[in-house]
Amino acid sequence: MKIFSDEQVYEGDKFTAQKQQITSIELMERAGIQIFNWLHLRMQGAQVPIHVFCGIGNNGGNGLVVARHLVNHGYNVHTYVVNFSDKRTKGFLVNYDLMKQTQKKWPTLIGPKDDFPKIGPDDIILDAVFGVGLNRPADDWVVHLFQHFKASKAFVLSVDIPSGLKTNAAPVKDTDVVWANHTLSFQSPKLVFFLEDTAKFTAQWEVLDVGIDPEYLQKTNTLTTLITKQDILPVYKPRKPFSHKGTYGHALLIGGSYGKIGAVQLASRATLVSGAGLVTAFVPKCGYLPLQSSVPELMLITDTNDTCISNIAIPIEPTVIGIGVGMGTSEETASAFTDFLNQNTKPLVIDADGLNLLAKTPALMEKLPKYSVLTPHAKELERLIGKWSNDFDKLDKAINLSEKYNIILVLKGRFTLIVYKKNLYINATGNPGLATGGTGDVLTGIITGLMAQQYEPLEAAIFGVYLHGKSADIAVQDFGYEAMTASRVISYLPKAFLDLFVKPEPPKTANKQDDKTTKK
Ligand SMILES: NC(=O)C1=CN([C@@H]2O[C@H](COP(=O)(O)OP(=O)(O)OC[C@H]3O[C@@H](n4cnc5c(N)ncnc54)[C@H](O)[C@@H]3O)[C@@H](O)[C@H]2O)[C@@H](O)CC1
Ligand SMILES: Nc1ncnc2c1ncn2[C@@H]1O[C@H](COP(=O)(O)OP(=O)(O)O)[C@@H](O)[C@H]1O
Ligand SMILES: [K+]
């Protein structure tokens, strides 16, 4: 699912107005009607007080459209204009007049010196104070109004974005932003709904179809994508009837050390279950027996050293190499890793101690083949790029690293972000059941397995992260969060593959009702 930038939504609005020969006011009316329908469908005329807070820009204009339709349908509406500026937009002014005509009085103006209205805990707040046009910090009194919303405990429905939140920067303070229960986001979700520091500002979100012309939506490419099943299916490579194990590549996993052989076991099982034709593991000698007896499908090559990797000599021609899980960072291993990178020409997936060794000797980054996939969790990422001041700073640093070395970064977390140069892919599958040791090793195995089958590295990263989270989402129905283990994530990978073809994912779009409901 494309995530459009603010500019692209504005452009889309202009394009639609021109192509469909309608005015921006009519488009605003369409969007407002969609929001009204959303509320009307759920409230069915209930007389719960609805407090509509409108700013003086187009977000406020949207709020006024909703308020008018609510009044026309007999709802218990209180409309306020948060009068923080006199630079009112046309969309605001037209709907301000219509509101006056509808309820025969002007909405209540709230200025810096006014008392805020009483809001009960069972009331509803429609937050249309600021949209994506916020361009400087809100005045203190407006911020106090946001805190008044929160203190009221009323249900907050934000129009387009929680007011005070920007789409491309972190807020200075958490109190500067409205805390929404639900946000109706125009045309696509926003990146900030998925970032650690800002996801909390809306408990839930839905996309509102504001009627931008389909031609524009289709032809416009975005830098940011939310990964959905619809994005995965075109990438999927069906298994061919006349194929054999050689068709699906030979994956090599390098890793393990005394006490951490399990990491290689998990990764190699995940590689097998992801469909690789052949899988070999390169491990210290102590790994031979446990791996040979627990994973019969796996082939093994051992290091000369008993307890850690000291000299990576591989007498095979793998399609792809996944390196680093459970490997340790001893001096011998570090030097073996350096020698390996100096002569390696194969595509790489690098995780865990592979990343830690890269961070220790950044010059090694120069040795990475193009399109290497690196899968750091937050701590590993910090070792690679240093501390960041907020999510956007982190993303900038990750983009710089990806551009400098032409590599793919998989930033693991609640919402794993895949960064390739300026392109960003957000994964929303997965759950806190994955917060347990070894699940990252499983992910490394999956991505390596997909690359063995000739998925492009970026495709493999996107598909792999999606499948990994999906397995956990299906497994959680049987195990709950606590009893989920990395092995169980592997056991549910088959169901994650099958799920691609069973039920279509319902689009996360607000219900679209027939516009007739608003006509009298
Ligand atoms: N078809 C539609 O109905 C569309 C509606 N849109 C709505 O328009 C919104 C954006 O509207 P605007 O660009 O008018 O801006 P907003 O309504 O988000 O912002 C308020 C206005 O106040 C000014 N302002 C910004 N920060 C301020 C601050 N801290 N203190 C005082 N004034 C400040 C801005 O210059 C802006 O004109 C979207 O979020 C959405 O709600 C657009 O998305 C386009 C499509
Ligand atoms: N709360 C969560 N929600 C969704 N995914 C999670 C959550 N916690 C962890 N994960 C996922 O689990 C994996 C953990 O990886 P990692 O930290 O490397 O584990 P390990 O090193 O033990 O294998 C990552 O893919 C991460 O995105
Ligand atoms: K808003």
What does this protein structure show overall?
The model is unreliable at 511-520 (pLDDT under 50). It is elongated, with a radius of gyration of 27 Å. The chain is α/β, with parallel strands linked by helices and 520 residues long. It starts with a strand and ends in a 21-residue tail after the last helix. The strands form two sheets. An eleven-stranded mixed beta sheet has the order 1-9-18-17-16-15-14-13-10-11-12, sandwiched between helices. The chain has a seven-stranded parallel beta sheet with strand order 4-3-2-5-6-7-8, with helices on both faces. It has two domains: 2-218, YjeF N-terminal domain (Rossmann fold), CATH 3.40.50; 231-235 and 245-499, UDP-N-acetylmuramoyl-L-alanine:D-glutamate ligase. The protein has helices spanning 6-19, 24-43, 58-72, 90-103, 140-152, 214-219, 229-232, 261-273, 288-294, 331-343, 352-360, 378-385, 391-405, 439-452, 457-479, 486-491, 493-499, and strands spanning 2-3, 50-54, 77-82, 108-110, 124-128, 155-159, 180-186, 202-208, 224-226, 250-254, 278-283, 299-302, 320-323, 348-350, 373-374, 408-411, 417-420, 423-426. Potassium ion (K) is lined by residues 59, 127-131, 158-161, 163.
